[in-house]
User: Fold this.
Amino acid sequence: MKIKTKSGKIRFDAITIFPKIFDSYLKESLFKRALANKLIEFKVWNLRDFTQDKHHKVDDRPFGGGPGMVLKIEPIYRAVSFLSEKRKAKSEKLKIRVILFSTRGKKLDVKMARRLLSYDQLILICGRYEGVDERVVRYVVDEEISIGDYVLSGGELPALVLVETVARLIPGFLGKYESLEDVKGFYPVYTRPGDFKPEGKIKFLSAPKILLSGDHKKIKAWRDKFNN
Assistant:
């Protein structure tokens, strides 16, 4: 199956109050190679750098009372404005999308990833604490996205999940186009040894004999059963 991929480079900008969370993930494996080969751009921005008070305050108590703290609209608005205007200064034709991670957002899936792949820049706002000022949702972001029916402490992990979901569709990110599940399909995989006997057990755990047959037509038919 032929799927839509990205021809030009896509840039990801993550806005967070904990920028070091991204460090180890971006310096390993596929992301390390993709960044080195300039397949993608990824920049992490500290929200505190967009404050204007000496204490670099990014949050405050919620109006009306209640527990926790709320991220303020002011630094978020400045950060998004800076990032979008900086890029648009180079080209008015750039397609930019501003995303906030939220439990009430639309759930991330492959279809959404393909749509987001069409943008030149994705600005990712990583919330914390009790969330962000609702005016950010209404007047700053283009959409809210969730990665599942559960609650996390912040938007940093969802940002990484989204970035990998989108970036893996870019030719060269996985190494081979055929590595995409969208292309090869979804099916169980096995490797050597063909027969494995757990220590202290009598019964062997064996791989399907058809996969060891060398008959590629039958192997394909067996795999296709899992995609019907």
About this structure: The chain has eight helices and nine strands. The mean pLDDT is 89. Residues 10-176 form a domain with the Alpha/beta knot fold (CATH 3.40.1280.10). The two ends are 14 Å apart (CA to CA).
